[in-house]
Amino acid sequence: MDYDGERVTFRYQDSQTQEWRTLTEPAARFLWRVLQHVLPKGLRRVREYGFLHSGARKTLHRLQWLLDVTPPWTGTVSQPRKPRACPCCGQPMSLTFWRRPCRWPVIRRRCPA
């Protein structure tokens, strides 16, 4: 970064090509670019509150369901796994999920083995 009294020279990384570039522009324009990212006093970033907050995934999923919005696929495609074989008979095993009702207090015990 360089400042000659009128113009500011700085480096930035182009988001499309990932190349580092150098730009020289008037100081007022440079300050305008920097201050675009500063919020006025008393305002907070929206993503820190409401359904955009990082801890509000359930709320976001409910809103998407209510509004019938399908989020873009962000996962990766994985290869299908081979089914596990039963150690006794060798037949493929299927996994069944079940949920036990929660009781207060929850005591977690480790297997002695």
Extract low-pLDDT stretches. Answer: none
> Total strand count, please?
3
Which structural class do you get from the secondary structure elements?
alpha+beta
Q: How much strand content do the residues show? A: 5-15%
Report on the biggest sheet. Answer: 3 strands, antiparallel
Strand ordering within the main sheet: 1-2-3
Q: Count of DSSP helices?
A: 2
Helices and strands, in N-to-C order? EEEHH
Mean pLDDT: 78
Name the helicity range.
10-25%
- Taken from the alpha-carbon principal axes, the silhouette is elongated
The span between the termini is 62 Å
Question: Mind telling me the C-alpha Rg?
Answer: 27 Å
Using brief descriptors, characterize the structure shown.
3 strands; 2 helices; three-stranded antiparallel beta sheet; 113 residues
Give a topology summary.
Blueprint: E1 2-3, E2 7-13, E3 20-26, H1 27-35, H2 57-66
Antiparallel strand pairs: 1-2, 2-3
How would you describe this structure to a colleague?
It is a single chain. The model has no long low-confidence stretch (mean pLDDT 78). By secondary structure, this protein is an alpha+beta fold. The protein has helices at residues 27-35, 57-66; strands at 2-3, 7-13, 20-26. Among the domains are: 1-38; 42-70, no CATH class. A hairpin with a 3-residue loop joins strand 1 (2-3) and strand 2. The protein is built from 2 helices and 3 strands; from the N terminus they run βββαα.
